[in-house]
Design goal:
- The chain is α+β, with helices and mostly antiparallel strands.
- The protein contains two helices and four strands; from the N terminus they run βαβαββ.
- The protein has helices at about 10-25, 40-45, and strands at about 5, 30, 55-60, 60-65.
- The radius of gyration is 11 Å and the shape is globular.
Amino acid sequence: PEIIVYTHPDCSYSTAVKIDYENQGIEFKEIDISVHPEAIPELERLAGGERITPVIVIGEEVTIGFNGIG
């Protein structure tokens, strides 16, 4: 399934997940909410009403934060 990662440039955990995925050769689609503010309502829906990054979506699975942090 496609991997979508919601990020923000001021979030060190967003940077960490991108570096980790790139180092592992994992392909993902990045949605930077600073560039795409229209994605914020979907981010908040996925994160249970919170505006937090990163949010990682793999198929139907949603992970908030990276390695349990974020």
